[in-house]
Design goal:
mainly beta; rod-shaped
């Protein structure tokens, strides 16, 4: 529409029309000025690195799914709330010599006996994945190389086959058990331990030669007299009544790992020589 086609209604004075037009122009100019000032105010909240200052952009200014993974460098774990992770894997990893990565409650480090649990990677132990839960009395631990159980295990059903593994078995024809004060080695066996408790089962038949005889069986970890004496077991036998069965069972809770030798010796406390026959030693490991 051209200005020549504008009809001014009868009775409207030109000065009045001009005044209304000027008022409208002032209002429009004021509104535009206000909007520009607000835009400048927001622009001034950006620092020299073009970062957005705290609280400037509210949720109404951010469209759904507008912030992508590439825009997020770090996120504090306390910002996470309840939710569901669907069909995804959470993988723990460490930077060499930078410290452990773990999920924990109660415990604060691997090997901690405080009640609680810890799951993660131990950076100070060859980056082994570990899981420990329990306390100083009762616990189950995966050390990265072995499963360890502390405390009694109360089974509510049958213990499965394969719980006990035979580590070694040896037999010997026996020989004389000399008189006091001599001590004689009766049998020895070497097994490969895995830092789990082992049980030593020993048995033999003993007969006296000249009368009533008594003495002590001794169990050593290592060679006789130079190894570690684990326990002493009393024995008695009588000539004229035939052979007497002798046996003992001992659990070594700290055998260590690798090659371990066990030796059984006899120290005769009587005045008569005795003879041992059918000597057997069995070493088992309880894995459960």
């Amino acid at each position: 529409m051209e200005w020549s086609q504008v009809n001014i209604p009868r009775g409207v004075l030109l000065p009045t029309f001009a005044g209304n037009f000027q008022a409208y122009s002032r209002d429009l100019t004021f509104a535009l000025t206000q909007e520009i000032q607000q835009l400048w105010a927001r622009a001034e909240t950006l620092d020299t690195d073009s970062n957005i200052a705290d609280g400037v952009i509210g949720t109404l200014y951010i469209a759904d799914a507008a912030v992508t993974n590439a825009k997020i460098v770090t996120c504090s774990i306390d910002k996470l709330t309840a939710g569901t992770i669907t069909s995804q894997a959470i993988t723990l990893a460490v930077t060499a010599d930078a410290g452990d990565v773990k999920i924990q409650a109660g415990k604060t480090d691997f090997g901690d006996t405080t009640a609680g649990f810890i799951l993660g990677i131990d950076d100070s132990d060859s980056d082994r994945a570990k899981f420990e839960f329990g306390d100083a009395t009762y616990s189950i631990k995966w050390t990265g190389t072995a499963l360890q159980v502390t405390g009694d295990i109360i089974a509510t059903s049958n213990v499965q086959a394969g719980a006990i593994t035979t580590l070694g078995f040896a037999q010997d024809g026996g020989g004389n058990l000399t008189v006091d004060p001599a001590e004689v080695e009766v049998i020895d066996i070497t097994i490969t331990a895995t830092n789990m408790p082992v049980t030593i089962h020993f048995s033999c038949m003993v007969a006296g030669v000249g009368g009533n005889t008594f003495g002590d069986w001794k169990l050593w970890r290592g060679p006789m007299t130079t190894g570690t004496l684990l326990d002493t077991f009393d024995s008695a036998f009588q000539n004229g009544l035939g052979s007497v069965f002798n046996n003992f069972i001992y659990q070594d809770t700290t055998p260590g790992s690798g090659s371990v030798e066990y030796t059984v010796s006899f120290e005769n406390g009587g005045l008569n020589i005795a003879t041992a026959t059918e000597v057997n030693i069995l070493v088992t490991e309880n894995k459960k």
